[in-house]
Amino acid sequence: MSVDTKTVARIAHLARLKVPEEALEPMAGELNQILDWVEQLEEVNTDNVAPMTSVVHADLPRREDKITAGDQRDDVLKNAPDAQHGFFAVPKVIE
Amino acid sequence: MTKLIDMSIATALDHLEKGTFSSRELTECYLAAIEHGGSLNAFVTATPEKALEMADAADAARKSGDAGPMCGIPLAIKDLFCTDGVKTTASSRILGEFEPAYESTVTANLWRDGAVLLGKTSLDEFAMGSSNENSYFGPVENPWRAADGASRVPGGSSGGSAAAVAANLAAGATGTDTGGSIRQPASFSGIVGMKPTYGRCSRWGTIAFASSLDQAGPLTKTVEDAAIMLGSMAGFDPMDSTSIDRPVPDYRAALTGDVKGLKIGIPKEYRLDNAPAEILNLWDQGAQWLADAGAELVDISLPHTSYALPTYYIVAPAEASSNLARYDGVRYGIREAGDDLIDMYENTRAAGFGAEVRRRILIGTYVLSAGYYDAYYLKAQKVRTLIAQDFDSAFQDVDLVLTPTAPSDAFVAGAKSNDPIEMYLNDVFTVPASLAGLPGISVPSALSDEGLPLGLQLIGRPFDEETVLRAGQVLESAAEFTHRPTEWWKENA
Lengths: 95, 493
Description:
The complex is a heterodimer of chains A (95) and B (493). Chain A has 3 helices and 2 strands; from the N terminus they run H-H-H-E-E. Chain A is mainly α and 95 residues long. Chain A has a domain at 5-42: Orthogonal Bundle (Histone, subunit A). In chain A, strand 1 and strand 2 (87-88) form a beta hairpin. Chain A starts with a helix and ends in a 7-residue tail after the last strand. Chain B contains 16 helices and 11 strands. Chain B has a domain at 4-260 and 445-455 and 464-491: Alpha-Beta Complex (Amidase signature (AS) enzymes), CATH 3.90.1300.10. Chain B is globular, with a radius of gyration of 21 Å.
């Protein structure tokens, strides 16, 4: 499997990362170098092997569905590049 | 008396208790050292006023008999831990002037026990790198230089923390380790670095890179200091669902110096064909030191070792691409204008992330995307199971595994920057234990032919940090590593 510039452009858009036209080709090269290298995993027989989904064998703890740290609007907004009237502000999304 | 900043945490604690000097005096010495150590570029942010305030509070606590286990000890904190009211950057441009309104659990635990914040140290951006060259704030210099005077990288990603401790700019420092980011810089910088078991330290408030791998740990001058500091950092935290609810042992009490009868595994797959002779010789020497102290050496096999790095470079970028989705120019950090909302996201992230971070986000997004998930991500998770099983079987027969920490001594800046895979290979000996979630320590053990530090790594069973530390201290005593770097950075001040 190898990626072409079209695939890089698609992935970059999925990742919400602008990659300028002229950078697509070199980026495809870099990604292919890494993908070629990780392809050695195909040598490993993983039939009947379960994927590792948790590192330490423990049940996920549960807690009551209760608000424990509410009422922090100003703290939450204080680092926003643009906050107005107690909300995060973003470029217009509805015409 | 030795200079204050040369002292280990254990020695400084004794003096603070006796009243030989105060935390304020000790903190002032470190603040002066930080000022004179500017050319190392170890710190992103120094916090002298806060440090003196905390030192005074520590002195008052000690006076009133409330001294915690780290009372009055000045520390450097990797700039990946959120610190309340103190700028936190992850060495990235994208976080801008981000000032957390909360404290990470690990640092809160250290402050609870009386430690003092000197400042925030540089790292590879979002902890992605093995040389500290990937920092938005410029590379960090290793305090150690080769015999010919050429400068070296401090390793990474906790390179600022490692350089700060090695140059005596802090009594100890926090790091985080995802694939070797505590142990490899410790090896390159001639200090001790410990990654505890996954789940031992809370990840809450630590900026996430790869959540199934990230673990916090100490970088210190001695193994005893690592034991003291880890004791404060560790502990159950309901805010992290992968934090494990079990008591934190008295790690310092585990340092009995006795390894008689301990079985030390020597894995044959770590004997790489192209490894430098000095690395292999030191490994043999380390095994001999433990055998001389009464441990038993056992040849073992960890058959899937060579697949650990490619597995890691699927799993870690995949998790990173998800974790870093939050940097969208809306809630914190910088924003770059765009034609619409999506365009703003894309411009912000392109401007805010450095080259290596962008590369890993793209790889991670690709291996998680429809049609490729099974071939890459699921496959890697299955191989990860096999790598962990290798260790499980080995630990049926042995108590610890001994390996070199890194395949070389510290390299020259720029030497590996153009080849990502060449850079990734630095973590060949540290990544397997990370994938299996196991505790590991790097202990400075010798100088290379170039006059640079080399470390040895011990890996233990899950939650058996005590045995790792105990044998680590035996290695430390046998190695008698008392070398110090020439303090060239003072002349540049």
